[in-house]
Amino acid sequence: MAPNPSTAPILFDRALLRTRQSRAVRLGPATFLLDRVAADIEERLRAVLREFKDGADIGTSGDQVRDALAARVGRLARVDLPDAESEPLPLAPETLDLAVSALAFQFVNDLPGVLAQIRRALRPDGLLLAAMIGGDTLTELRQSFAAAEAEREGGVSPRVAPFADLRDVGALLQRAGFALPVTDVDRVMVRYDNAFALMADLRRMGATNILVERRRTATRRATLLRMAQIYSERFADPDGRIRVTFDVIWLSGWAPHDSQQKPLRPGSAKASLAEAVRKPLSPSPGGGGSTRMK
In this structure, which CATH number among 3.90.226.10, 3.10.450.50, 3.40.50.150, 1.10.287.620 belongs to the domain 14-255? Predict the structure, then answer.
């Protein structure tokens, strides 16, 4: 199923994204998040006991994922996400055993359409494994900019892209027809000397503002200085360094196949809910996202 440009809102200027990514390469890219995700993709696939002959790395900027999976996948082609929403992915039906993507889906205007195309390109029992930025990413920067603009300019302009949350992504996988959909989040906390050091790294990630509705005039110096001050006041550690949140949302799903587990039919359970709730609960191990300090 091809994306439908008439129903997908155009939030991101994808031509500008490519320009920003090219600038990041010239500046010397900041790749710590992409490096982390590439290593995590390799580790997650290590737990999948099957062979992947034909794969595609979809939209990932950089070679980290393909390098990490060189010994795991027979052939892993690079597939770019198109700039025009009406242009389909260059993927033939049922030609892939594996599709991976690292930190690219958050800049897609029609993510449901892209997921549906990937699902169509997977062979039965083929796997999609992807990571995208979402959740509370850059919440500290958002709040600091909003407070500074409201104070200095009397209004707030769109600066940081809206991010999907975990439940949204899980629903999109189901909508695209994936079986056994799973989502989880890896929260990465990074520290910087100040807000300007963070913004420099965002430029080196190619992750600065590409919203279609972004303000086209330069931010006032007074607003920037006030933003940095507010950031330090609200989100600094005792040593003066500021905290930055990056939420990496992981999503995986399989193209349906007869060998996969199926949900039980209603009424087929062997024990009643009343019996289950009378049993004492044993403590379960805790879990949570991981943290990286920079």
Answer: 3.40.50.150
